[in-house]
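Q: What structure does this chain adopt?
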Amino acid sequence: MLLILLSSSFCLGLMAWGLDFLNIIINWENLVKLVERTVRSEYKRSPDRPIYIVGESLGACIALDIAARNPDVDLVLILANPATSFSRSQLQSLIPVLQVMPDQLSLYFSYMLNLASGDPLRMAIENVAKGLMPHQIVGELTQDLVAMSSYLCVLADMLPRETLLWKLQMLKSASSSANSHLHAVKNQALLLCSGKDQLFPSEEEAQRLYHMLPKCEKRVLEESGHFLFLEDGFDLVTAIKGASFYRQGKYLDYVSDYIPPTPYEFKKIYESNRWVLAVTSPVMLSTLEDGKVVRGLAGIPSEGPVLYVGYHMLLGFELAPLVLQFLMERNILLRGIAHPMMFTRAKEGRMLDLGSFDTYRLMGAVPVSGSNFYKLLSSKSHALLYPGGVREALHRKGEEYKLFWPEQSEFVRMASRFGAKIVPFGVVGEDDVGELVFDYNDQMQIPSLRTFIKELTEEVVHLRIDASGEVSNQDVYLPGVVPKLPGRFYYYFGKPIETKERKEELRNRERAHEVYLHVKTEVEKCIAYLKEKREEDPYRNLMTRLVYQATHGFEAQVPTFEL
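A:
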């Protein structure tokens, strides 16, 4: 993958070359051609691989112009706070002022430097997040302010009125050119817009571009400023991976193009879900080869392919502790087979923004399909499958811990083809963290909500249209849940079911169906076991766990029922 970065630093750096040189050489057309030559050269060298152009502010305008001029090149555009909104920004009004004012513009120049230098309060918050002590924070801020005051006058001399005016006129030309070519941009594009951009109305502009560009997605960073790439808390690679924008060929392959989370990425995900682990204190049990049940994941197979098949709690409450614990305890990355609604969305739809599911994609989720299932098992992955799907995760009142599986086998024959181990598992605890009080049946009695549910359901990809029974009801709705004083989550992984030595046997549909029913029965047994045993857990209640942790340390593992 080739990545071309066009940041504000690149564009500002041109200003130090001297105004006469800039006027002669670096006009807008020449600047675009300068980058375009690099793009064409790389395309000639690797025509089957995508070229990523990352553009910030003015750089985003360059990226859009190059995409419009080169429709034959597979370009992926990452656009951060594009300057296409220049005509609606405060900077636009500075041009006539600069044209008539004298060279001494310290007031205006200081103002612009303040916009570029960042927010000291935000810097302090980031330092706290990095674990710096208060006296260190004060020291760093003092050094920053002293350094800024020392070079402020130097920068003012380097950027006189003419140079600053040139920069603004360049932005005006860039914005005008990019906007005039937007209709020709058909490339995949990711818009990154900052909620606290003081230079441009980036959120409004992102919404406009989102509707104008046909293959566009957007992400809003509410606490970020204009110079996004200079912020310590922003990671460009994480943003690209989370949006599923990284690919090596013409089309995205969710299996072969996937890059596992880095330690830094995992740490951020873990920290954002730490409260879930704290309040649910998950208990995980697994089964060894000799049938012994142990606490922890020692009974989980190390080598893939492995297929984990289980019960989906309401709204998938069990997912975060499950995936995080597997990676922490066994260094196993569970590749969840997920509903397509997490990967595609209608632009005018009512579904959640796709950014809400970036963490799932970052942790390896793939859209459900036969080809993706095949690729996961053929690559010896640890795949996570919920046969009950949406119907199980969005169940009704009184249906907790009830399986809504299809009548026919969906996974056994594929698993046996690759000799995958099938691990049935059950999970309980949703009724200990919340009570479902306003379900699908209730909402369908209200005309406005009935219409809303219908519109939501029509937006998403329809699955199991040929299935019969309740599992075919794939209506999407938002359950009304009243929180409870949290109880505890319990997971029980049964003994792995071998298919490697039964490949020929399981080609027979009847034999495969027998195994399918066996797996379903094992999942139901796991659930029944946990429902019974949790009654014996003295630490099922949050308050008793807090008392235990207060005396043994908050990092101590809280005991559970005897096995």
